[in-house]
Amino acid sequence: MSTRRPSSLLRNPMAKLAAVPMVVTATVVFIGCSLWTVVYSFTDSKLLPRANFDGFAQYDRLWSSSRWIASVENLAIYGILTLLLSLTLGFVFAALLDQKIRGENVFRSIILYPYALSFIVTGLVWQWILNPDLGIQGMVRAAGWESFAFDPLNSPGLVMVALLMAGLWQGTGLVTVIMLAGLRGVDEDIWKASRVDGIPAWKTYLLVVVPILRPVFVTSVVLIGAGIVKLYDLVVALTGGGPGNASEVPAKYVYDYMFANQNLGQGFAASTMMLLAVLVIVIPWAVLEFGGKRRG
User: Fold this and answer.
1) 127 belongs to a structural domain
2) pLDDT in tens, 82-112
3) Whether 271 contacts 41, CB under 8 Å
């Protein structure tokens, strides 16, 4: 006599009941507020939201604004470089720590420590480090190299380098720890087989280990990408968006228009563009992760 297995909806009822508040909150706050923002981005709202629909006028103003275009270009440059360098440095540091070196816990704590700081603190720290009188330039000149010049915070061509340095210092540690956890899950027999066959370690990493760590890389890309899109604190603390619009980013544009300029419609339109950017990152990740598991 066979017994029917309980429906998946009836399994772990207490766990599902405990998740109800979170689901309701996410549905109302995230989805509801996101839809509200999208709807009111088609209005001419100023100080307060009002349902005077204005078509795509806000989006026309948005994409004709040199400040918005500059913010998108800056974020694209920062995002591409941050993504590539974070993954590369994170994997290299993780591979070095995976060699069972002495004092691994100390090095791991040092690498991860900056991530425990907020972006505001990180920005203030790097503002001091890059200060032309007290930071790198001042110390090098004090050591005798009087002609040395390194002042990226006041140089439109180098200010994104300053943001990149601070962002990598703050976020690479998390990527390193994620990569290290993935490397520790690689079967030891793979390394034994590669040593027996005389395969160089770099080739084993490149052709065997990296494909195995595909889910780890995807997770890292999603986390880094989400942080890139919402970049705001670091810019405000380190550069204030200057000099000029050289370090302007979309999140700062949204904040300034919604609160400083009292133009909610323009802020809603910019927020909607940022939401689309997040969806471009999250949807492919969800398809790769959950779609692949369902097919499997």
Assistant:
1) yes
2) 999 999 999 999 998 888 778 778 888 888 8
3) yes
pTM of the shown model: 0.84
In a domain, 7, yes or no: no
Q: The CATH number of the domain where 205 resides is what?
A: 1.10.3720.10
Per-residue pLDDT at 270 exceeds 90: yes
119 located within any domain: yes
225: in domain: yes
Q: How far apart are the C-alpha atoms of 136 and 129, rounded to whole Å? A: 6
Domain count across the chain? 1
Which residue range is the domain that position 77 belongs to? Answer: 26-295
Separation CA 88–CA 176 (nearest Å): 9
29 CB neighbour count, 10 Å cutoff: 10
Please return the burial class of 90, using the count of CB atoms within 10 Å of its CB with bins 0-12, 13-18 and 19+.
buried
Cα 210–Cα 213–Cα 219 angle in degrees, nearest 5: 125
Hey, what's the torsion of the CAs at 250, 253, 258, 264, to 10 degrees?
-70
243: preceding bond cis by omega (within 30 degrees) = yes
